[in-house]
Design a protein that fits this description.
It is rod-shaped, with a radius of gyration of 51 Å. The longest helix is centred in the middle third of the chain and has 105 residues. The protein is built from one helix and no strands. The protein starts with a helix and ends in a 14-residue tail after the last helix. The chain is an all-alpha fold.
């Protein structure tokens, strides 16, 4: 009987130790899970902050691109207008020169025609 009693006490002590160990393990796992959850929440906030910063930067870049495109369009329009004006001025000058040339070519030649030389 004493042996049975001692066996029962040892079994109860073993189960008590096992129970305590399981409770400690469960607590460690729960604390780890809570820590991971907190870390994940912190990481989520950090990533959301990064996303908002990148979104703001993207908006700034888009505005810069739009400004650059508008400036380039204005520059091209000014260059095209300048080119058009230069072409128009050149055409006008060509027309004036053509008119002068035609006027010179249409004037009758009043200079005496040299007599033909008799070559013997």
């Amino acid at each position: 009987m004493l042996r049975v009693r001692d066996e029962i006490r040892m079994t109860i002590a073993y189960y008590q130790t096992l129970y305590d160990s399981c409770i400690a393990y469960g607590m460690r796992m729960a604390l780890r899970a809570e820590q991971r959850r907190l870390d994940m929440q912190k990481k989520i906030k950090q990533l959301e902050s990064e996303v908002s910063e990148l979104t703001r930067t993207l908006a700034e870049y888009k505005q810069g691109c739009e400004r650059a495109e508008a400036q380039e369009a204005e520059r091209r329009a000014a260059a095209a207008e300048d080119y058009r004006l230069r072409i128009e001025a050149q055409r006008k000058k060509n027309a004036e020169l053509r008119a002068q040339l035609e006027a010179l070519l249409s004037v009758p030649n009043t200079a005496p025609v040299p007599a033909t030389l008799d070559v013997q």
